[in-house]
RNA sequence: GCGAGGGUGGCCGAGCCAGGUCAAAGGCGGCGGGCUUAAGACCCGCUCACGUAGGUGUUCAUGCGUUCGAAUCGCAUCCCUCGCACCA
């Protein structure tokens, strides 16, 4: 029968569903003792790190989870791997005899689904295209997707669940839920009330994207333009402007160069107006020589938190969004400030405000300070202002005063002269503010000054410090003195999908205190205790703990759980998904309990035991047993790029809320998926749907490709051609297996009843090739087991599938396959390989295994190494035969002859004795001491030089070889080659003669070059 | 820029942590041969260079270094990927 995955897979899916094969429960009393387990606990096989205690039936438990899918769109083949990795592990542990729980639920919290629905409802083309073309939603079902739950439900049922079931994932579906379920919310409520009580939540201010049209915060997903925009934290330097009538002259008097602290900042005088100048380089405040304002733009005089400010009209609105009371007193044009003098709050100096069209009134405050020594822009602008007397006069500015403005250097930078801006401009021959290279010059100066610039003497306590090291400190210090303020601004224009402008708003919010020292320490312990796979990710966990600040954990809108003490807010999606694995253990038994009874006490009793509350709910205590049995999570399979957030939160919350015995056992990070070499993208339609792939190749092929083409943490690349190759490989495997299974039936009669064969079986004589193959099987089992324990799906499947195929090729060449013993061997090997491959290709292996033995592979158990079948000597002997074959072939090829006779000479006895001495000298023999020992023997001493050469050469052979050193001296070379002579004759179509060196037919004098493990050869 | 990880033969990818059996697994592709009416499938061999005896030479991003010995250890340089938050 041809390999027909669709038919096979459908059958098994049905069987699993009907029997509830993957619905796992803690053992009931009745189960205890009645298990017929088959493992004699392999002592040679890596022992499984046993996780939590388990009552009952003698089985270990394994609890494996994966981040629940977020159904804001369909499922593609990249997702398929994410969920298949834990499935493979789950199946492996089940074969090892564990009681395994692999649950799944649906994450629908937050705004992505709501956003997707809104885009659909507003008829957005791109969204329609994604739904219709990429994910194949039928036209007439689109309306089902018009509500968030309808949308989620559709993709859960029609995409995720259907595909995951088609892939044969061994999920306990009784436990599924969504994060919007009432009972789940009760669980999250318990979690946040507990954290709140423990003081790990804190109220504070936080910048957010705010749509000025919808008058509410929006997420990155809601943006039409400016998704890349970042918050920029501007420093506002509060220059003072004394009355509107001030002229330049009266400012000149009190100019002083003492520029120390006593005249600094402080409270503005009653008639003073604050002109806040926005800058990203607060440390340049002592280099300010003048300021600029756009004379043609709209500005306002406004009351800001009780002070009078002069800012751009737009800035007044922004400031109002950033926690300030703003009321506009008067609308004025920028020209009002032109020609005025304003006082630097740090130096106390008065500087002149010049008109400039390059000032963007729409950015920050719309007024900027000028630091020509350190800003190429300002350098050029000042030069241009000096040159443009006419314009200055037009604004009533005394050109002499402008000419007097001199750059002031306040930062020393290596590689630049006194005025870095000047150097940067002159190096590039820039002489106009329109020169595009000005951007690069500015970048250059800014970067170098930041990293290597040293503040000059007038900076007092900061003098001599590198900018990078003290900028923040300096900024804070001046802020405290009232000289500085701050405001946020985007790096670029940001527009909401509704069309409204988005601005930075500062809102009150609740933070999780991930920088709490005690909490950090517990989390570090959790990291130290767990397995990090691959191990080289561990560093990143520690690092993230140090780096994480407070995390704002609530949102103003979206799906999810309300903040218990302030229901206006919703707990944010990453924050409501940190310990939900605990919820899996009880999810399927919560239906009986009304949500309102799932209160604080209920969960306290459940998670902390009967002593934790005064009147524990019996039902909670019953559920506690489920939780106790399954927890902790043994492995969480997630993605490496989630380490800085989700995985870290997962660890933090476990570390805080549960005892260390319930902390995660391990985390495996998964890599990303590519499609034909480039990133998948649902909006571009550059995805492959699992349903299509399964239909075309079969689920086993999809699984095998995903798990065998790279290790889980590496990126994989779905290439249709490669997937096709994988399908062909499985097909070949299937055909071979089937031949063997069918053939066996007829053989059975020929060999009277079959059945009775066994290693000790009377009629069955296993020859050395059979035993060799069985020995190889043991090595493979050990290798696969080790790999599976480390989640190395690729290494495991490579070993059992491809590399073992190599051994089989050799075996087929070497042996007479018509022998009953050969068929028995092949059958035995097939049986074991089906079990080893069962986690990867469960459909195919179960089917074949059942046909072969009467029961599915998944019921058979994971093979264990049989030490009696390991035979290093046999493996070494086969290697010698194989090398001899290669050597003869090489000689034939190089000489271009077609030999009639191949003579093989085995090294003389005395050489063998030398070899034994060399081997006896240990894994790192040195020539000198071996020679000493050898020369004690008078027979050998006679051979002098010859022995010396031999030892030198043999030392090389032996060095570093550990595992098979005993075998090396134990092999019977003559016997080995004689047994192989028929094989060699067939290979070369020539007569093969084997001689000991001492007693050889040796027409070409070659015998003497024979060495132990390296026979001499002569062909003619 | 900062943090983490990485650069292996035509491609994908083992090996590196625990230096010697490494010209370097396996897969794919390519070439030659077998089987077949033929194609496919399947089987065998070759696939860094040179070589009429199993060999020799030069390779594991680049350059130094440690060592009897380095793809494997150290340093420096160049390049790539991921993350840099309030978002799943």
What features would you highlight for this structure?
Isoleucyl-tRNA Synthetase, domain 2; Rossmann fold; RNA-binding; four-stranded antiparallel sheet; five-stranded parallel sheet; 1020 residues; single chain; 36 helices; alpha+beta
How would you describe what is shown here?
This protein starts with a helix and ends with a strand. The chain is globular. The strands form 10 sheets. Strands 2-1-25-26-20 form a 5-stranded parallel sheet, sandwiched between helices. A 4-stranded antiparallel sheet has the order 4-3-19-21. Strands 12-13-8-14 form a 4-stranded mixed sheet. The protein has 5 domains: 24-180 and 671-718, Rossmann fold (3-Layer(aba) Sandwich), CATH 3.40.50; 188-200 and 513-555 and 572-670, no CATH class; 230-247 and 260-490, Isoleucyl-tRNA Synthetase, domain 2, CATH 3.90.740; 735-870, Isoleucyl-tRNA Synthetase, Domain 1 (Orthogonal Bundle); 874-1019, no CATH class. It is 44% helix and 15% strand. The longest helix has 31 residues, at 720-750. The chain contains 36 helices and 32 strands. It is an alpha+beta fold. The structure holds one RNA strand of 88 nucleotides.
């Amino acid at each position: 029968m041809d390999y027909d995955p669709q038919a096979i897979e459908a059958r098994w899916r049905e069987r699993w569903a009907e029997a509830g094969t993957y619905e796992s429960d803690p053992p009931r009393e009745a189960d205890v003792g009645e298990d017929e387990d088959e493992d004699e606990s392999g002592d040679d096989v890596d022992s499984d790190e046993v996780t939590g205690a388990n009552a009952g039936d003698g089985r270990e438990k394994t609890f494996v989870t994966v981040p629940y899918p977020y159904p804001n769109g369909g499922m593609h083949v990249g997702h398929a791997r994410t969920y298949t990795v834990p499935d493979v592990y789950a199946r492996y542990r089940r074969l090892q005899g564990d009681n395994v729980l692999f649950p799944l639920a649906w994450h629908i919290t937050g705004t992505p689904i709501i956003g997707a629905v809104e885009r659909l409802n507003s008829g957005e083309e791109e969204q329609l295209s994604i739904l219709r073309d990429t994910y194949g939603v039928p036209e007439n079902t689109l309306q089902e997707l018009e509500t968030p739950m309808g949308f989620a439900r559709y993709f859960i049922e029609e995409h995720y669940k259907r595909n995951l079931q088609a892939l044969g994932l061994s999920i306990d579906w009784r436990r599924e839920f969504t994060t919007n379920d009432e009972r789940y919310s009760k669980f999250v409520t318990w979690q946040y009330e507990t954290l709140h009580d423990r003081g790990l939540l804190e109220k504070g201010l936080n910048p957010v994207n705010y749509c000025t049209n919808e008058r509410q915060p929006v997420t990155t997903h809601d943006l039409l333009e400016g998704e890349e925009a970042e918050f920029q934290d501007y420093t506002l330097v509060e220059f003072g402007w004394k009355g509107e009538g001030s002229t330049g002259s009266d400012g000149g008097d009190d100019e002083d160069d003492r520029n120390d602290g006593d005249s600094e900042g402080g409270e503005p005088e009653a008639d003073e107006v604050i002109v806040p100048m926005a800058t990203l380089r607060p440390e340049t405040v002592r280099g300010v020589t003048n300021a600029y304002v756009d004379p043609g733009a709209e500005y306002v005089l406004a009351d800001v938190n009780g002070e009078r400010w002069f800012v751009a009209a737009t800035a007044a609105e922004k400031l109002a969004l950033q926690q300030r009371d703003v009321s506009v007193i008067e609308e004025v044009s920028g020209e009002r400030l032109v020609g005025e003098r304003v006082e630097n709050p740090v130096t106390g100096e008065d500087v002149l405000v010049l008109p400039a069209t390059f000032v963007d009134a729409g950015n920050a405050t719309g007024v900027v300070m000028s630091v020509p020594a350190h800003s190429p822009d300002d350098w050029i602008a000042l030069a241009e202002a000096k040159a443009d007397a006419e314009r200055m006069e037009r604004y009533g500015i005394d050109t002499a005063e402008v000419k007097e403005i001199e750059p002031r250097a306040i930062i020393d930078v290596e590689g630049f002269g006194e005025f870095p801006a000047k150097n940067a401009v002159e190096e590039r021959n820039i002489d106009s503010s329109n020169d595009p290279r000005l951007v690069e010059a500015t970048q250059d100066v800014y970067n170098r000054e930041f990293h290597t610039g040293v503040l000059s003497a007038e900076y007092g306590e900061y003098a001599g410090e590198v900018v990078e090291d003290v900028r923040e400190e300096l900024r804070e210090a001046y802020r405290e003195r009232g000289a500085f303020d701050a405001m946020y601004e985007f790096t670029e224009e940001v527009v909401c999908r509704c069309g409204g402008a988005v601005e930075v708003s500062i809102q009150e919010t609740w933070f999780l205190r991930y920088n709490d020292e005690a909490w950090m320490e517990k989390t570090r312990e959790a990291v130290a205790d767990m397995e990090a796979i691959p191990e080289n990710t561990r560093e990143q966990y520690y690092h993230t703990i140090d780096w994480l600040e407070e995390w704002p954990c609530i949102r103003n809108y979206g799906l999810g759980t309300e903040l218990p003490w302030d229901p206006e807010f919703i707990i944010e999606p990453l924050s409501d998904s940190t310990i939900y694995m605990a919820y899996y253990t009880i999810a399927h038994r919560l239906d009986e309990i009304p949500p309102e009874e799932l209160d604080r006490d209920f969960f306290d009793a459940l998670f902390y035991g009967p002593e934790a509350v005064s009147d524990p709910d019996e039902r909670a205590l019953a559920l506690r047993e489920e939780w106790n049995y399954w927890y902790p999570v043994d492995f969480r399979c997630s993605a490496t790029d989630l380490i800085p957030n989700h995985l870290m939160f997962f660890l933090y919350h476990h570390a805080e809320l549960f005892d260390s015995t319930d902390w995660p056992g391990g985390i495996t990070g998964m890599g990303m998926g590519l499609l034909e070499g480039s990133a998948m993208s649902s909006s571009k339609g550059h995805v492959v749907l699992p349903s299509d792939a399964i239909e075309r190749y079969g689920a086993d092929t999809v699984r095998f490709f995903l798990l065998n083409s790279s290790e889980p943490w590496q990126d994989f690349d779905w290439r249709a051609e490669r997937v096709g190759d994988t399908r062909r490989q499985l097909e070949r495997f299937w055909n071979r297996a089937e031949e063997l299974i069918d053939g066996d039936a007829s053989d059975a009669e020929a060999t009277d009843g079959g059945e009775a064969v066994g290693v000790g079986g009377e009629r069955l004589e296993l020859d050395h090739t059979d035993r060799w193959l069985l020995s190889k099987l043991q090595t493979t089992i050990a290798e696969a087991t080790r790999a599976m324990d480390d989640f190395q799906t690729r290494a495991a499947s490579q070993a059992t599938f491809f590399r073992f195929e190599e051994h089989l090729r050799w075996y087929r060449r070497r042996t007479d396959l018509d022998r009953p013993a050969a068929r028995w061997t092949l059958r035995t090997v097939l049986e074991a390989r089906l079990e080893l491959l069962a986690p990867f290709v469960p459909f195919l292996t179960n089917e074949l295994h059942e046909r072969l033995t009467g029961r599915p592979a998944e019921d058979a158990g994971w093979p264990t190494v049989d030490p009696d079948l390991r035979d290093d000597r046999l493996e070494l002997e086969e290697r010698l035969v194989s090398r001899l074959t290669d050597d003869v072939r090489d000689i034939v090829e190089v000489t271009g002859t077609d030999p009639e006779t191949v003579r093989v000479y085995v090294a003389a006895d005395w050489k063998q004795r030398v070899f034994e001495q060399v081997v006896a000298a240990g894994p790192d023999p040195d020539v000198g001491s071996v020679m000493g020992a050898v020369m004690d023997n008078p027979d050998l001493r006679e051979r002098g030089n010859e022995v010396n050469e031999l030892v030198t050469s043999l030392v090389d052979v032996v060095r570093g070889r550990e595992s098979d050193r005993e075998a090396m001296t134990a092999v019977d070379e003559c016997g080995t080659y004689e047994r192989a002579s028929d094989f060699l004759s067939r290979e070369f179509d020539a007569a093969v003669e084997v001689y000991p060196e001492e007693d050889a037919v040796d027409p070409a004098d070659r015998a003497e070059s024979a060495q132990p493990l390296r026979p001499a050869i002569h062909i003619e």
